[in-house]
Design goal:
Elements (H helix, E strand, L loop, with lengths): L3 H10 L2 H14 L6 E4 L1 H12 L11 E5 L26 H8 L3 E6 L33 H8 L5 E6 L5 H7 L2 E4 L19 E6 L2 H11 L25 E5 L9 H16 L3 E5 L4 H19 L18 H12 L2 H14 L5 H24 L2 E5 L15 H6 L5 H6 L3 E8 L5 E7 L5 H12 L3
Parallel strand pairs: 2-3, 2-4, 7-8, 7-9
Antiparallel strand pairs: 1-3, 4-6, 5-6, 5-10, 9-11, 10-11
The protein binds glutamine.
Glutamine (GLN) binds next to strand 4.
Length: about 450
């Protein structure tokens, strides 16, 4: 794995242009993975030349990275892996991308995802699935599958992703890289295609924790253009608190969880103990309802956020229609994937006047109970751990025809999303078949930096 400091050394020894050129070359050689939808080659090389000429500098001067293709970024269309936005050229860049560029980082391409980030395998992309970095017969995970795979294949040291219900953590786990989903509101979502506004977060997939920390510290902070951003709180911690109280979520270790996954988590718990922390089993009974809550609230927000794609303002417009209703209907039929449509229908249903109380309102109440359970645990514990997903990467096609089975894979990632908590996925082992297994650490709101320093303290002792 090549991390940021190694890349920086390479830039010193050669040039930013050479480093960017070799990243682009590697990206092309690995095209069979279908991890990238478009390269931003011309713009990347232009920026590299400016860095070599001393016109741009910064903490990440010349370091190549990739963005998930739901970030508005220059140099190639922003498709959200959908036919709806297939030819959409961004008029501006996402704040997160702007901040990285201000530090000299160079975006070399746009990564594949489930269309509009709806999914957990990157099989819902309008442009074909991404293959797992370790086993090409398996899924990359999702929805930030492309970002995870380019990082795991060492095309770039880090890639940006979005996590609404697990889309950074689960692909990170499936491909053996670090994935950070921050506290809700840590990074501005301005210029990122909206999925579910009450749980959408921006984060990073990286080779190592130190790189993830650096990137998060650059991207985080208040942004006037996103009113949900928190005032700056993200201050990196040199050293982790040496004696932490950690809860291992029992409800995440039940039957149905792959024994190899359970073993890897127990091993990680032992490593924490060996390092001086206490780890004990804790209950989070509301987990039983987490998927039901998530798959009511999130589709409700999706149906609302996707209403803007009407064929009038931007994006795809159906041809040869006679009436406005036909224009709306056919544009949306052609532009959305099956999973997008499924969520629009579920969302519209749970928000309809006859069912609003029974579903949406009830789900919001249950969400509050989940918030309370986490709050109670954080009175006693500094952090919680458990698996990221019940299994390692599943086979391509294995779950795609059964949406409920696909949703079940999200059981351990959606709770932190519904509550807005920071959650990190770090490599914790491999299965007998050689597939990566991630461990998830969840902390109280704004404990992002503390969580990262805790996992860094263990990473260095591997
Ligand atoms: N797999 C989850 C879903 O399908 C999470 C998606 C996400 O975080 N973008 O909703």
């Amino acid at each position: 794995m090549t991390n940021i400091s190694e890349i920086q050394q390479q830039i010193k020894n050669t040039s930013a242009r050479q480093v960017v050129e070799s990243a682009i070359k590697l990206a092309k050689e690995k095209s069979e993975y279908n991890a990238l939808l478009n390269l931003t080659e011309d713009r990347a090389l232009l920026r590299a030349d400016k860095i070599d000429a001393g016109l741009i500098g910064g903490k990440l001067a010349g370091v190549p990275f990739v963005v998930k293709d739901n970030f508005l970024a220059f140099g190639a269309p922003t498709t959200a892996a959908s036919k709806m936005l297939e030819n959409f050229d961004a008029p501006l860049q996402a704040t997160a991308v702007e901040k990285l560029e201000a530090e000299g980082a160079i975006c070399i391409g746009k990564a594949n995802l489930d269309a509009f980030a709806h999914g957990g395998s990157t099989e819902n992309s309008a442009f074909g699935p991404t293959k797992n970095a370790i086993d090409q017969t398996r899924v990359a995970g999702g929805s930030s599958g492309g970002s995870a795979v380019v990082t795991a294949l060492d095309v770039v040291p880090f890639a940006l992703g979005t996590d609404t219900g697990g889309s950074i953590r689960q692909p990170a786990s499936f491909n053996g890289v670090v994935g950070v989903k921050p506290t809700y509101g840590t990074v501005s979502r301005y210029g990122v295609v909206a999925m579910a506004s009450s749980t959408d977060t921006i984060g990073v997939l990286a080779d190592c924790v130190t790189d993830a920390e650096l990137v998060m510290s650059i991207m985080s902070g208040k942004d006037e253009r996103d009113m949900t951003t928190l005032p700056d709180f993200f201050a990196l911690q040199d050293k982790a608190n040496p004696k932490q109280r950690i809860g291992l979520i029992k409800d995440f270790m039940a039957n149905g969880v792959d024994p190899e996954v359970r073993q890897a988590i127990n091993d990680y718990a032992d490593r924490l103990r060996a390092d001086g922390h206490t780890v004990e089993l804790v209950d989070l009974p509301m987990v039983e309802y987490a998927l039901a809550i998530y798959y009511i609230i999130v589709p409700a927000e999706i149906s609302s956020n996707l209403a803007r794609y009407d064929g009038i303002r931007y994006g795809h417009r159906a041809a040869g229609v006679k009436t406005l209703a036909e224009l709306y209907g056919q544009t949306r039929d052609q532009g959305f994937e099956t999973e997008n449509k499924r969520r629009i229908m579920i969302g519209s249903y749970v928000l309809s006047s006859g069912f609003f109380d029974a579903y949406y309102l009830q789900a919001q109440k249950a969400r509050t109970l989940l918030v309370n359970e986490f709050n109670q645990l954080f009175e006693k514990y500094d952090a919680l751990i458990g698996p990221v997903a019940p299994t390692t990467a599943f086979r391509l096609g294995e779950n795609i025809t059964d949406p409920v089975r696909m949703y079940l894979n999200d059981i351990m990632t959606v709770p932190a999303s519904l509550v807005g908590l920071p959650a990190i996925s770090v490599p914790a082992g491999v299965s007998d078949a050689g597939l990566p297994i991630g461990v998830q650490l969840i902390g109280p709101r704004r404990s992002d930096a503390a969580l990262l320093s805790l996992v860094r303290s263990l990473e260095n002792k591997q």
